[in-house]
Amino acid sequence: MGLYLDSKGELRLFVPQCRPLAASVVLFRLKRQGFSRCSVEESEGGLLIRAQR
Q1: Would you say 35 and 41 are in contact if contact means Cβ atoms under 8 Å apart?
Q2: What is the rounded distance in angstroms from the CA atom of residue 48 to the CA atom of residue 53?
Q3: Rama region for 46: left / alpha / beta (φ>0; ψ in -120 to 50; rest)
Q4: What does the alpha-carbon distance between residue 19 and residue 40 come to, in Å, rounded to a whole number?
């Protein structure tokens, strides 16, 4: 996950054509990897993922 983090340790990722059903799985994985302030938003065309390490 280090490739997707900015200098502040924040993750912002857009996954196109991903269904909202996957949000719970994404949140579970982020928390297991040590991220906090995790959120997944359904946006037009996919999921917008935000988290902070």
Answers
A1: no
A2: 17
A3: left
A4: 11
Domain-by-domain residue ranges, the chain? Answer: 2-52
In this structure, the chain runs to a length of 53
Residue 1 has pLDDT above 70, yes or no: no
Q: What six digits make up the tokens of 14? A: 């857009």
Could you please report the per-residue DSSP string of 11-37?
Answer: EEEEEET--GGGHHHHHHHHHHTT-EE
Question: What per-residue confidence (pLDDT) applies to 3?
Answer: 77
User: What pLDDT is stored for residue 33 in this prediction?
Assistant: 92
Phi, psi of 50 (to 5 degrees): -135, 140
pLDDT in tens, 12-47: 999 999 999 999 999 999 999 999 999 999 988 999
